[in-house]
TrEMBL record:
Family: Belongs to the peptidase M24B family. Eukaryotic-type prolidase subfamily.
UniProt EC number: 3.4.13.9
Cofactor: Mn(2+)
The keyword Chloroplast is assigned to this record: no
Protein's UniProt name: Xaa-Pro dipeptidase
Native organism: Manihot esculenta
Keyword Hydrolase: yes
GO biological process, one term: proteolysis
A GO MF term: peptidase activity
UniProt keyword list: Dipeptidase, Hydrolase, Manganese, Metal-binding, Metalloprotease, Protease
Length: 505
């Protein structure tokens, strides 16, 4: 029997992390030179620690801290890492494990193992940090450590600077490293792009599997399970980029559905729209893909209206993307296209420019158009450069307002939702109530929503869509009717026509 996957997990070269460290060193040295500071000190980061579940001895599955992963690619917990600004040498500090580790958790590896595995200049134990760094900079009484501390504008949380016994014997700098290292993560190298592309490829393939196997009467979590199984079984993806959103019916208007209080447990009903936002992570790098489709495999006229409104916005943005383009302008473009489509469908009435002025688009698309993607689903750096965050509805939810640059990977995810908590106030507001066709919009109560999300690489002259899933209505209906993906258009249309009793593809 043929495998349901054409993919296999690629070997990720350790050169990827060499390149990341060299990129940081170049940027940091340039900054120090421009600010008339000496080129010495150590970039010093603390890796992630294993965590137990509350007071138990159950250890949660470890995932490395993202900045540490970016520079060193280390998969194990308890490490520290340093980069000598003067020489460029990279140093890992490994936890000294107790003898009984070998009984319960496996072989205790020698330091040489980690030096070879992670391609660093030197490896020592974590209890040697003070002595090693002082020896490497013996001409300085208190060697300088550039520590990671700064605000993540997506989460509003701060990066945690390294802590270790004896840190008081060093001079520390808490302000220089974070913006420089964060900016390094914004633009991806070719090796990073290749890993992200695999994460997108296996996730795209898994989305098609989910689409093909969706049936009325299933549970949302069963479709989540199909996605997780496929990406792990065939892609070696033990981690997901985020908690899967497997929303159907009115749940598809819950933007971050799938959390513990809404755990993907609804039964799929005939006539539902499904909105599945799921992405696998491979070797730390993630993907973030959303597909929307009818659970019974055939779009109604109302579903087609909303779906095509979002698809037109999605396609227009991708067509317009290139270096120098404002992401704020792309968000407004998506809003305007969706509002134009809703007006053509008689859901709203009036002048679309007036609607834009009154921020009506935020009623139907309250989230931002997309976000930077990389080692984190919401990769940092969105507001390091460019305009500050807007305070207007919808626009304040944008995770970046920067101009696009070659090497960025950013999601394009317009959506259109019917959310009572937003519609009711807008329909009662004197500035926006005039835009609603109340008779028609009543048909969409309980409709839920549609989101279409692709991961896009900004190139020198435009962009490349890294996602490969059915997007056009005829493609979705063909795949759900059993056609192979990618489609042969003639055979796919024939299959859809048979399902639709001869109606046109």
């Amino acid at each position: 029997m043929a495998s349901p996957s054409s993919l296999s997990p690629p070997q990720v070269p350790k050169e990827l992390y060499d390149i990341n460290r060299e990129k940081l060193l170049k940027s940091l040295r340039q900054h120090l030179t421009e600010t008339s500071r000496p080129l010495h000190g150590f970039v010093f980061l603390q890796g992630g620690e294993e965590k137990s579940r509350y007071c138990t001895d159950h250890i949660e599955l470890f995932r490395q801290e993202s900045y540490f992963a970016y520079l060193f690619g280390v998969t194990e917990p308890g490490f520290y890492g340093a980069i000598d600004v003067a020489t460029g040498n990279s140093i890992l500090f490994v936890p000294r494990l107790p003898a009984d580790y070998a009984v319960w958790l496996g072989e205790i590896k020698p330091l040489s193992y980690f030096q070879e595995k992670y391609r660093v200049s030197m490896v020592y134990y974590t209890d040697e940090i003070v002595g090693v760094l002082h020896k490497l900079r013996k001409e300085v009484c208190q060697p300088l450590l550039f520590l990671l501390h700064g605000l993540n504008t997506d989460s509003n949380n701060f990066s945690k600077p390294a802590e270790f016994e004896g840190i008081e014997k060093f001079e520390t700098d808490l302000t220089t490293l974070h913006p420089i290292l964060t900016e390094c993560r914004v633009l991806k190298s070719d090796l990073e792009l290749a890993v992200i592309q695999f994460a997108c490829d296996i996730s795209s393939e898994a989305h098609v599997e989910v689409m093909r196997k969706t049936q009325v009467g299933m549970k949302e979590y069963q479709l989540e399970s199909i996605f997780l199984h496929h990406t792990y079984m065939y892609g070696g993806c033990r981690h997901c980029s985020y908690t899967c959103i497997c929303a159907t019916g009115e749940n598809s208007a819950v933007l971050h559905y799938g959390h513990a209080a809404a755990p993907n447990d609804r039964t799929l009903e005939d006539g539902d729209v499904a909105l599945f936002d799921m992405g696998a992570e491979y070797n730390f790098y993630g993907s973030d893909i959303t597909c929307s489709f009818p659970v019974n495999g055939k779009f109604t006229s109302d579903q087609s209206l909303i779906y095509n409104a979002v698809l037109d916005a999605h396609n227009a943005v991708i067509s317009a993307m290139r270096p120098g383009v404002s992401w704020l302008d792309m968000h407004k473009l998506a809003e305007k296209i969706i509002l134009d489509s809703l007006k053509k469908g008689c859901i709203i009435v009036g002048n679309v420019d007036d609607m834009m002025t009154e921020r009506l688009g935020a009623v139907f698309m309250p989230h931002g158009l997309g976000h930077l993607l990389g080692i984190d689903t919401h990769d940092p750096g969105g507001y390091l450069k460019g305009p500050n965050r807007s305070k207007e509805p919808g626009l304040r939810s944008l995770r970046t307002a920067r101009g696009l640059e070659e090497g960025m990977v950013i999601t394009v995810e317009p959506g259109c939702y019917f959310i009572d908590a937003l519609l009711d106030p807008a329909m009662g507001d004197s500035n926006t109530s005039k835009f609603f066709n109340r008779e028609v919009i009543g048909r969409f109560k309980g409709f839920g929503g549609v989101r279409i999300e692709s991961d896009v690489h900004v190139t020198a002259n435009g962009c490349k869509n890294m996602t490969n899933v059915p997007r056009e209505i005829w493609e979705i209906e063909a795949v759900m009717a059993g056609a192979a993906w990618p489609l042969d258009k003639a055979s796919a249309c024939s299959r859809v026509n048979n399902v639709n009793n001869g109606s046109s593809c």
